[in-house]
Amino acid sequence: MSIIIKGIRLNGKTSDIFIEGNRIKEIDDQLDVKADEVIPGEGKAAVPSFVNGHTHAAMTLLRGYADDMPLQEWLQTKIWPIEAHMTEEDIYWGAKLACLEMIKTGTTFFNDMYWHWRGTARAVEEMGIRAAISAVFIDLFDAQKAKEQIALNEQLYAERDAFGPRVTFTLGPHAIYTVSEAALRWCAEFARDKGVLVHFHLAETEEEIQECLKKHGVRPVKYLEQIGFLGPHLVACHCVWLDEEDIAILKAHEVRAVHNPTSNMKLTVGGVFPYPQLREGGIITALGTDGCASNNNLDMLETAKLASLLQKFHTGDPVIMPAHEALDLITLQGARAFGLESGVLKAGHWADIALVDLNNSQLTPHFHLASDLIYAANGSCIDTLICDGRILLRGGHVEGEEEIIAKAREKAFDLVKRSAG
Amino acid sequence: MSIIIKGIRLNGKTSDIFIEGNRIKEIDDQLDVKADEVIPGEGKAAVPSFVNGHTHAAMTLLRGYADDMPLQEWLQTKIWPIEAHMTEEDIYWGAKLACLEMIKTGTTFFNDMYWHWRGTARAVEEMGIRAAISAVFIDLFDAQKAKEQIALNEQLYAERDAFGPRVTFTLGPHAIYTVSEAALRWCAEFARDKGVLVHFHLAETEEEIQECLKKHGVRPVKYLEQIGFLGPHLVACHCVWLDEEDIAILKAHEVRAVHNPTSNMKLTVGGVFPYPQLREGGIITALGTDGCASNNNLDMLETAKLASLLQKFHTGDPVIMPAHEALDLITLQGARAFGLESGVLKAGHWADIALVDLNNSQLTPHFHLASDLIYAANGSCIDTLICDGRILLRGGHVEGEEEIIAKAREKAFDLVKRSAG
User: Fold this and answer.
1) Which residues are B23's β-sheet partners?
2) Which of residues 263-292 of A touch B (CB under 8 A)?
3) CA distance A29 to A37
4) Of these four, A41, A291, B25, B328, which has the most CB atoms within 10 Å of its CB?
5) pTM greater than 0.90
């Protein structure tokens, strides 16, 4: 299968992009090649498709179910009771809905942590995008639970190739307050041994810091360093409550960080991702949406806008995280964080490409693409999405989207009914 | 002209909405009436269309032209030199583009302050929405300039009916640091005398407060009270730097306040609109986008999300400005702020109605409409927009939108060229 995108805006010029198989074969002003499919690029711009660095995809099922509640009450009376009733089939439909929303808003890769790993993996494989998927690993400091979780992860790791190369297995130890030291040590060893990433919630709330100080006498980052948990395999999500020493330690261990501005603001975590310091430290940073119960969408352009606005507001510096840098965070930096052969459109890279409709009132007059995408537009400006050399979105439409919406809605309401009875 | 919307979701029920002329005639479970046009409501929800409490519509022409610069450099080297070259024709096309974007994102009323009043008025009249329009009144403490501005405003007031009832004339004294005391006094008197609103920037930055203290020995609100500027005619935009006494004074004079969260964050004004205190004080509050050079869009659903997130983040209270309240701010409260006969869908009100497409991945599963609209969706979920009993948007499309986009783009690039010499 080959595709040629003719006469598209790319980095300020008009170019042709030739795709062969799942990779970009050539980009030039004008290419004289034959392809199975021709996409006219007029009135469109090509950008690398987006990377969502942290989510719980199937939480789409709980979108809007219980907002505007205090955090603990929300978790204990709403989220956890429902999650306890989720089946793999629920997760599958929730993840399909998530993939649909991501495709429609330009995202081709997400980093996931949730229940029923196989349900999410099946959805991702079918929908045609990419994901690094982890099973939530929580043992609540119970050795028996830890044993079960380890067995499950070993089994999922053994099965990981069943879902094809777009699905990557990762480990998902939840956080220091839900996972025992022994299990965290096991995760780090397994990650080093097998070369898999570890997806983790780190320093999200002040409470986490205070509890860790009380329990271990040190802050979370130091504690994790002491038990050998840190390394380039670690994708640390949130990273809101970090001090200078924490940042130096994360840097020394080449940990990757994911900032989730919308979730942090909505859940009132009380601090802000120290972006200037992490950037200064050269720490690879991506942006994430978090799950749909705490955002409530999966739109990476909105997330990038929020990230930039929050940094400006918090630092008082109107030029911090300029538009091109915010766009970079959801493309190139995101790709670096997860080792993806994408993030910049060039020959040899995966054909993971979003085409932006420039005949959009929010992208008019159109002086600077990055400014327009980050500050003015949202994910609805994406017209076409290509992942792994396959066209997943055409004219803003995904084949079969109506069925996914109807089925996910049915599953969500059924889930609420089941969990109530 | 009559319209019936059949079987639409409204306040959690399925209803029919009958529109006759420019008003809602009747709403009931099932209406057996004949109408010139039938809109099938299946898969859609009806909400009052949105109110944008503060913008400079034609600044769409400068969208993305110069972002990520320090404020003063941005104004002096980019915005002001270009604005000096704007003609009424530029303004007309910029405002047409703004109206187009607002129609596509569910807004039927905006409160505007900009140059070349007639250009904006003409655009609003043609596009079919409503606006309260003021000419920017800046005299820079020069009596001759003040005289010219007063003459212009008297003339515009005399001509105000030329543009039909959807266009309202208001006064637009810019701010205390750009308008003389004599001119501010004239504005307040004229407003009281003629019953028109006054659109004003108030307490946007700390610098404004400090300068006022130095010049007048009191804070801006107190100064404005002393010169008789305050009253229910005043729409005070931004209101970021207010103390308790300021709020009490604004309340005593029944001033209306407009919060512009995105602009405040992007321009790093350094403070936050004191929403809990203003709400407690019973001060009528609306939300606004500000102009497209400092936002960079006119999407009121995005603005409402930002407002809610910023309040949560700033106060540390996760239940402040819940979704239904944020939605209220851009509908009912907005209508109250500007004396509109809309903001809630009921018989006798203007037929200003937005229909939301519920078959949208971001509105799935759809447990709570307000949560979905504010936290998950953006303006692109609006399928149909009715203003004054006329259908302006159908299936997300506005008749002639391609021409407006092309023409506004052409005008913007031409303006940049002209202003460069």
Assistant:
1) B20, B350
2) 264-268, 270, 292
3) 18
4) A291
5) yes
